[in-house]
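User: Modeling request: complex.
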Amino acid sequence: MSIYLKLIWAYLKIGLFGFGGGYAMLSLIQREVVDSGWISGTTFTDIVAISQMTPGPIGINSATYIGYVVTGSVWGSLLATVTVVLPPFVLVLYASHFIRRHKDSAIIKGVFMGLRPVVVGLIASAALLLMNSDNFGAATTECIKSIAICVASFCVVYFTRIHPIFIIIAAGIIGAIIY
Amino acid sequence: MMNNLYISLFLAFFKIGAFTFGGGWAMISIIEREIVEKHKWISKADFLDLLAVAQAMPGILAVNISVVIGDNLRGLRGSIVSALGTILPSFVMILCIAIFLTPDDIKNNELISSIFKGIRPAVVALIVAPVLTTARAAKINWKTVWIPIVTALLIYSKLPFISNPITFIILGALGGYIYYIKRVNGAIHAGKEVEK
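Assistant: Request completed. Predicted assembly structure:
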């Protein structure tokens, strides 16, 4: 089987079974690309690090990077990215249309009434899971600085109308100064 | 006028894709600010429903959100334009990195690594903020506040199966449906009693 077909198959699976956003998808990506022997575990960690350092969804970043590394060609990147996006794209469109057509049905109304508080919980869990030493640092002083940045960022985003993008830029500048 | 909306959709999601660190959840603050508050394309309540659809489907959350919002505004073409806007910045940037920069180059650069030490806790704050804004939009009260708390803690626990977000999406959907049907039936019975 050609490497391109293998790439399509792997990212088809990642796209179709990756529930719960980027971080939840990581273990799935790891299983497909590391356990199949395409890249080493260290390279995978490096890709995750790059994905965290560069903007954009981690699923897209990993598909683009691994597609290039595995095939040595831009086409590999393009193929992996399109494959990971397309099947969910179709599913999301269908779901969205179905829901709009039956917007006033008891099923849709009830289902969304139950889902709303759950979605709030899902976002909270993503925040909780990120409050770790990877993001806040292991050393005490770094951790205190990180908490200060986190609390200040929260206050700015929650109480002012300053665009979050400026908070990220400001936090980057602060990081460059204090570390 | 219509062309303008396609272009502003593309630009809005391009901006979102180009400035979001830390994955889909961190994007919610930025998407909410751009789509709900700045452009007023959809209401906060609708945004939460679209978020639930995007979350319930597999795939990359950020792309899914852009697809449902684009589709909501301008159908298939709108969703394609929004998805491209979200994908293109990271695709181009990562491709350049894959071609020109090795992971070691970035990790060993002191300036870049200290910049990112500052950015990471800010990203966490960007995810905490929408917890509170969506809680308000979802009209969470003292009767329902246990649902997001239990959901968050059980997912955080990383226990097998029950820490899976899909479990809570299914439970929430089922629970909401059953509650709604019961309430509607109750209202019908109450109405009949009044008629008598």
